[in-house]
Amino acid sequence: MQFNTKDKELTLKIVYYGPALSGKTTNIQALHQILDPSARGRLMTLDTKGDRTLFFDLLPMHFSTRSGVKVKIKLFTVPGQVVHESTRRIVLSGTDAIVFIADGSRSQRSNNNEAYSGMVRNLKANGLDPERTPIVIQFNKMDLPGVLTPQEVAEYAARGKEPILTASAIRREGVVETLQACLGALYTCLDDQHGLKRKLGITREEFINRVAPSEPPGARP
Questions:
Q1: pLDDT tens digit string along 99-121?
Q2: Candidate CATH numbers 3.40.640.10, 3.40.1000.70, 3.30.460.10, 3.40.50.300; the one for domain 2-209
Q3: Which of 61, 151, 186, 188 has CB 3.0 to 4.6 Å from 97, enough for a Cys bridge?
Q4: 3-state class (DSSP) for residue 182
């Protein structure tokens, strides 16, 4: 979290983390298509052959609160390939919250677990406490065969404190809800630690819905 007192500007960072090909970039691309153009900037992506993210994607979002505070939220993705471990660690530096994109296929359980363990390791390497960092988990690709059942997803949710959502990012389903869940967890953390409402006059409702409304523009035909 960075706060410019002079300009009354709050800057936050959210990182989309997960194994290779789980749909991190697809989530960001879907959000870029769905969100109000007045509340988001240009999507910047650096791809390699095969459309696999080499370095990162960046989608900036912004809005002004009723109290006059400007809020800027930068959404990053990390490359999922094992060879880019150092890049993932760098992108995680200074993050305020994480959306962990897991592949919903049962066959990808080992890759999901390995990526999550790597995320925890990289958070610690950056001096961040995984227990104090807001984390939301999304099981993506739920439109494909061989994915987890709702009961299995519920069992995962019962084991930990992180909110768990399901999505089909390629169909643009569940991506806004995932971002909202992350923003909600981030707001709770920041309000507890820094008094967003008391000191800056930022309410939970506008923090979540000004940039990611429940009925985003163009959501209905």
A1: 999 999 999 999 999 999 999 99
A2: 3.40.50.300
A3: 186
A4: helix
